[in-house]
Design brief:
This protein has 17 helices and 10 strands. It is α+β, with helices and mostly antiparallel strands. It folds into 3 domains: 119 residues, no CATH class; 163 residues; 201 residues, no CATH class. It is elongated, with a radius of gyration of 46 Å. The protein starts with a helix and ends with a helix.
């Protein structure tokens, strides 16, 4: 019985009111009493209407970010990581002029093949960009200037430099007195990698109308730029080209025998020097087509010189063999006068350089002796002095070469002035044509071998780069976060409108009650 009486006392009457008093103050008559029961009842009555309002607000909240994305859509940016793969020549410190002692070491920093800092501005140079655009068909034309403004090159700090920079930055944040000094003296090094980025949307920076390429075209354009930059590195720093063709210029029909053989001998010597000057790695490369190396071709060329060219040349000169002896005499006399003039100029230059070296004063340096207060003076050779020494060595070499040439020309003139030649010109002509044909065949083989070698991936790719990274999101994925926020905001706005529409009549009832009371008083 007690429990039943308690339940009856706790039961709330359906007609009772839940009131909220707003802005009540002592002695105030403007307080508004809000009956929440009536408010929720009105909300219940308007639930169908506000269901549509909720759908409308939710739709607007979802569509507004999509519409905003169409006007503020960020441009697509593709990036590739470029890694330097060539090797750097490190000359011998004891003998910098001797390139034969240079060692090949893999590149570990952002340096050029000659050991100097790599000039990354060449990525956006007109030479590279024009080569990248040449032969490339795009849906819309892109100029070199517009392409340059959309390319960004970023270097990658080495791990040691990154740590030093972090330490200096932390000292700067702590307001250390030595922080600014360390930042100024900080020498940063970079890895053998850098990042090249290309952004879509080409045109003037302030222009609203810009050219937009497709994602596939943008990636192809970035690969073309990196490929053109790699070609620039190869052409600028490889230092090895195909051998010059000096044999095809020898016209055995119009030139006389001694003149043709002299040109053939010079061409063979230059071709041998070309092969001998190649790096060891290139000399040891074995052709997949012929199975030969550069060293094998050098042996073939040496045999050709010894057996055919040099023997025939000595036979023709010693025997005074020529088709037109008078014409050859005039040619040798002209060459002799020219060579003597060159020798006089070289000797004069040698004397002038010797006088400069004798009277030149190098820099004087005072050196303090250890554990003593005495100082001694010494002279340090300047770069200009060292340059003059090298020029003097070249002068001596040139003079010796000219003297040897004068002696050979004088001997040839003496032989040609003899009564008769000690050989048949026809036989020598046949042997000459055979030697020229053999030399041309050897040159063709060496040229094809070098074409195959230089076309190898190791010689055509100084830098390798990754596939263009970066993908444009569709408008739904790119606006997903804003769409969620818009949907939540739409639901909140609809609920607030729903509640306020049911709440506002409570204030209207207050005004009506006051009007009734005023009427009764009247």
């Amino acid at each position: 019985m007690d429990n039943q009486e308690k339940d009856k006392r706790l039961t709330i009457d359906k007609d009772s009111k839940i009131q909220v008093v707003v802005n009540r103050s002592a002695g105030s008559s403007n307080a508004v009493e809000i009956n929440l029961a009536r408010v929720f009842h009105r909300m219940k009555l308007k639930k169908r209407v506000f269901a549509w309002v909720l759908v409308l607000c939710l739709t607007v909240g979802l569509c507004a970010p999509l519409l905003l994305y169409q006007f503020t859509k960020p441009e697509l940016t593709l990036s590739s990581v470029v890694t330097l793969k060539y090797e750097v020549l490190t000359p011998d410190e004891d003998d910098p002029e001797n390139e034969d002692r240079a060692e090949m070491k893999p590149v570990t920093t952002l340096t050029a093949p000659d050991g100097k800092d790599l000039d990354l501005s060449q990525v956006t140079s007109a030479y590279v960009l024009q080569n990248a655009l040449s032969g490339l068909t795009l849906s819309q034309p892109v100029s070199v200037s517009n392409l340059r403004t959309n390319i960004e090159v970023q270097r990658i700090l080495s791990e040691d430099s990154r740590r030093m920079q972090e330490v200096a930055s932390s000292m700067l944040a702590d307001k250390s007195t030595n922080a600014y000094t360390q930042l100024q003296e900080l020498e940063l090094t970079y890895d053998n990698q850098f990042v090249v980025s290309l952004t879509n949307g080409f045109g003037e920076p302030d222009s609203r109308k810009k050219i937009h390429l497709t994602d596939e075209e943008l990636g192809l354009l970035l690969e073309q730029v990196l490929g053109a930059y790699n070609s620039y590195l190869v052409s600028a720093y490889r230092g090895v080209s195909l051998p010059a063709d000096e044999i095809s210029f020898i016209d055995t029909q119009s030139m006389d025998l001694p003149e043709s053989l002299a040109l053939l001998q010079t061409a063979a010597e230059n071709l041998y020097d070309y092969c001998d000057g190649l790096p060891d790695a290139m000399k040891e490369y074995r052709s997949s087509r012929t199975g030969k190396t550069v060293e094998d071709w050098m042996e073939t060329l040496q045999t050709l010189e010894d057996v055919n060219i040099n023997y025939l040349y000595a036979h023709v000169l010693s025997g005074g063999i020529a088709r037109d002896r008078d014409a050859m005499l005039r040619t040798y006399q002209y060459k002799l006068r020219t060579t003597r003039n060159e020798l006089e100029e070289t000797q004069q230059k040698t004397a002038e350089t010797a006088a400069l070296l004798e009277n030149y004063k190098n820099d004087e340096i005072l050196v303090s002796m250890q554990e003593s207060e005495e100082t001694r003076s010494t002279r340090a050779n300047t770069n200009y002095y060292n340059k003059m020494v090298l020029e003097q060595v070249e002068n001596f070499e040139q003079a010796a070469k000219l003297e040897t040439g004068i002696a050979d020309l004088e001997n040839s003139l003496a032989v040609l002035t003899a009564a008769e030649a000690s050989g048949d010109p026809a036989d020598a002509q046949a042997e000459l044509e055979t030697a020229v044909a053999a030399a041309a065949a050897v040159y063709g083989g060496i040229r094809e071998h070098m074409t195959e070698l230089l076309g190898n991936a190791e010689n055509t790719h100084y830098a390798e780069y990754t596939i263009a990274q970066g993908k444009s999101k569709n408008f739904l994925a790119a606006s997903a976060r804003n769409m969620v926020l818009g949907a939540v905001a739409g639901i909140l706005i609809a609920c607030v409108l729903w509640f306020m529409s049911a709440l506002m009549p409570e204030f209207q009832l207050k005004k009506e009650d006051e009007a009734v009371k005023e009427a009764k008083r009247a």
